[in-house]
Amino acid sequence: MPDTPSAPVTDVASSSRSVAISRALAVGSLVGLIVLGLLWEMWLAPLRPGGSWLVLKVLPLTLPLTGLLKNRMYTYRWMSLVVWLYFTEGVVRAWSDKGLSAALAGIEVFLCLTLFVAVTMHIRTRLKAAGQEAVDADKLRHAAAIGAASDPIPPSKP
Questions:
Q1: Which helix (H) or strand (E) is 150 found in, with range?
Q2: Cβ–Cβ contacts within 10 Å for residue 9, how many?
Q3: Distances (CA, A) of 71 to 14, 26, 65, 68, 88
Q4: Residue of 95, 97, 101, 102 with fewest CB within 10 Å of its CB?
């Protein structure tokens, strides 16, 4: 069954759209976690009046921001692991804190889940696209090795 020229174009378009959406979700939820952490520990519901040293928890979140903005696959991969530390903190504080702090912890849990889903969607989409490109390149190499035409439609005979 010959491949139609429009099929890869559609796959590439949907793949790049998924990558763009997942990147926007990942960056947005990461920025949301940074802003939430700063507001939470400095003004909204700090552990001590006037702010607490727990605000330093947002510093590690600033490191992957550059990698996500530059679309680095390695950053997406390790961010999918680091996010669980903040998720755990959110769950513990949602369970143990009262009032506004518990609500902010719930927001942190939501942002962590959003970040994880976005990062894993980004990784899967990019790996699938890279795999398809590798398969297509392998088909072309094989066709060249056996002396076949690179065009899947055989030439018409006169």
A1: none
A2: 10
A3: 17, 11, 10, 5, 26
A4: 95
* Residue 113 CB-half CA count within 13 A: 8
Return phi, psi of residue 149, to 5°: -70, 145
25 vs 125: CA distance, rounded Å: 14
Contacts of 68 (CB under 8 A, 6+ apart): 23, 26, 27, 30, 75, 76, 79
Q: Which long-range contacts (CB under 8 A, 24 or more apart) does 19-25 make?
A: 19/71, 19/122, 19/125, 19/126, 19/129, 21/121, 22/118, 22/119, 22/121, 22/122, 22/125, 23/68, 23/71, 23/118, 23/122, 25/114, 25/115, 25/117, 25/118, 25/121
pLDDT in tens, 81-98: 999 999 999 999 999 999
For the chain, what is the mean pLDDT? 88
Q: Can you give the pTM of this predicted structure? A: 0.81
- Tokens coding 134: 């590798």
Q: Which helix (H) or strand (E) is 87 found in, with range? A: helix 73-96
